[in-house]
Fold this sequence. Notes:
The chain is an alpha+beta fold.
Amino acid sequence: MTHGPRFLAAPLPLLLTLSVFAFVVSCQPTANLPMTLEMTTVNGEPVPLQNGRPLISFDPQERPVLNLAGDWKKLRKPVDPNLSLAARTPLWFLRMAAELDGAHQPGFDDSGWETHRIPGVENAMPPVPDDPAGPEIFEQGVYYRRTVHIPQEWEGRVVRLVCLAADYVADVWVNGQWAGVHEGGYAPFALDISDKLAYGQDNLVFFRVDALYWVLRQDILPAYFATDWMHYTGIVQDVYLEAAPAVHVVRGDVIPENQEGDLRVSVVLENRSGAAAPVNVRLRVFSLDRAHPGLLSDPVAGHLLGAEATLQGLTQRAVTLPAGAFTCEAFSVRVPAPDLWTPADPNLYILRVDLEDDEHAALDRFSSQFGVRTVETGPGAKVLLNGRPVFFTGMARHEDWPDTGRTAVLEKIARDLQVIRDTHVWFLRTAHYPNHPYTYLLTDRMGFAVWQEIPAWWINTLSVDILLKRGLPQQMWREMIWNGRNRPSVLFWSLCNEPMWYFVSNLRDYVRLLHADLDDNYPDGRLVTQSLAADGAAVIGDAQLDVDVAGWTLYFGVFYGQDISAETAAFLQAQHALMPEKPILACEYGYWSGSGGSEEPEQVRVANETLDAILPFAAVDADGSATDGFLCAATWWCQFNWYRNQTPRIQSMGITQMDRETHKPVHGTLLDRYAPYFGMGGLAAE
């Protein structure tokens, strides 16, 4: 979001600012750490690889798991960020050995280290919610050690260390052996550690995490020091070990092709044994039981099976997997007369893949929830869900709790989503970064239309060039999309938030490259968007030509302009005239409540006057009738207050305090203004 003065003053301050900015950047080395995710093609199907092996599905499976949550030993350690971002060469390992000084080895004495709860942010949290002092700002290195006993019966299985988020560069050692690295604080990653374990014995797991200081560094994402959210350091989300059979299903992806139930299913199989494996792959589909008591408390789709659905077409295939190999098998199948997914009626199915040997003995089972729905743009600048124009009442949410920061558990996520739903909201923007994967399992089940985004925040001409050469936006884009491939609630993939319009001449190159990567190589039917600041439309607004839906932040009368209603309406009309077939999404509007609630009346005024301008352009009216409007959603920023790196440390634009219980007056305003549109379910009547 926009949160401070833009460089709209005289040219001299602008030129001075840009000169200082360019000088700082020119003095910094550029990272040469290679990306760990790449794409390949197997049997004509796209397959993502992480660290050279197929990227796993992060949907929880019915397999043996060792949860590594609990007390770890930790040591804060000043580290060299340039070492963190360097290629892992022999010289790097020599330099790293000197830094670690044996801390990654099993026999190291860590008795003098502190104890830290994992998952958990490294930053010390304030004692009360909405504390103006905010959490501790800590952007340095941390070592984490934990001993775990590995069952003897896991020998011969594929054991992966799975981490759902570590911020920002995480290197992992197991029993003193380096297992791999991941860059990026918001995406999950998995490392195969099978050959580094001592089975039936205690084993040491060691993390070196470098948060990297966000201060005008142009080769990481995010980079800018004044980001409008909190930089939480450490092993932020769940970390666990999963033991899969030597011959197993790595992932199963479902792309709905139409409303008639035709599905494109791709199944990635891997054989990590020493012999060729003849196997039989069998697909089954079940309805997800929406009455199951674990609907909002059990992330394992395989536990929520309802009635088995009819599945037409070729549903099984015999395959011989060479030793040490992986493959991808594609299936074209149909669920006849499917129950379609919409936010108001979130019907879901569960894909189950059974893997058997040539004598039909069970080898492995994989399950993942999915929905049958289509999303596209249509005539009259409409977004169409299942062929019906949409207008969604919207809300944004930062992944930030007053006691745990970004560290999430299923129960907290579910509670947040219920508070948002009770605000008469159908559309959720999950801030400027991918959230915990369970967020999207729940938005599927509860029924939200979702915008998900990579943390390309305030990118500029210098950073776009550096980052694209590194391949970092491409990696984050692919991670986000492949991790959410089966989530019907995700309708929009966002490329960036508010590029520095006064200093980004190459935005269209960035947008075109990432958009084409999706459409040309692994299309999934979602719509591509971005969040651009309305006050920069004259400079970079043509980049909206390269997305499916034009996302605009609308802060007239807040950060720029004077008359909220008149200028917001005039802007939307002008943009529609420039791109008459392009749907528009109002991805941000809002205002802060101020210290002690001093600005609460102004927060209400901004809400009312902005909605006065926005609602007449809604593509669906409050009676559920399609209009000649072009606006598909309107999103207040945000539901809850959140912490940030800059001053003031508490960002008070929430309509609810961080305690999730104390609503501000503007909450009632939105509740009332959203109610008529919420009542029609967000879709035009059939």
